[in-house]
Amino acid sequence: MTRIAFIGGGNMARSLIGGLLKTGIAASSISVAEPRAEARQELGREFGVACYGEARLAAAEAEVVLLAVKPQVMPALRNELQEVLRQHRPLLISIAAGVRIDQLERWFGGLPIVRCMPNTPALIGAGATGLCANGRVSPPQRALAQRILDAAGITRWLEDEALMDTVTALSGSGPAYFFALVEALEDAAVAQGMPRETARALAAQTCLGAGRMLAESGEAPAELRRRVTSPNGTTQAALESFAADGLPRIVARAVAAATRRGEALAAALDDAS
User: Is 117 in contact with 172 (CB distance < 8 Å)?
Assistant: First the structure.
């Protein structure tokens, strides 16, 4: 039985813990470090896992330590965890946005490390996670990391860590882009006279249905778009309007901006440490 310690008991950790328990992982094999007493009590009641106020106690016997904290917490966390990680040398998994593997190696030593970027749909088991690993991660550890993250959705490995900032910009931040699009569709329909509740329901279901078609059909998005678009029809009129306003360029600039911000956050951590 692999013992897994979650450092941080926030929403993402909760989604992963819940997913792991559904796959048959025993609650007794999971521990959580969470500084807030009320949150510890809630985690214990909901999942039956051992909860601690200090990270070093949760990680003491773990074979996998999953860092589910905000990036700015990392420099302080290393002081508490360095010794226990040096003694037990667990697989270290980080889901902290923008934190590079070389930074984790510098802070926590030469451990097997997997860096991950999940997204918020993981909270409902529909997440998308990019992963990359350093050279110390063995094939069984790689499979174990994937199993843990698969509990909250799909996973994809990247061999080039430099692309992790693009993962952050694509799928990490991506849900907000779709929320913004649905918000705009809703407002546009309301402006045409539709009740807001109806507009929201139709826009949200359309987004869900289109996403399922894309994920389940195996077809390229361009092909699915072509099938929906009748010559000189309503869809073509809307798509031509998107093109005239430069939608592809707008999206490309947005993803590039998010990628640059991820790089900047990592650089800021270098300066802080």
Answer: yes
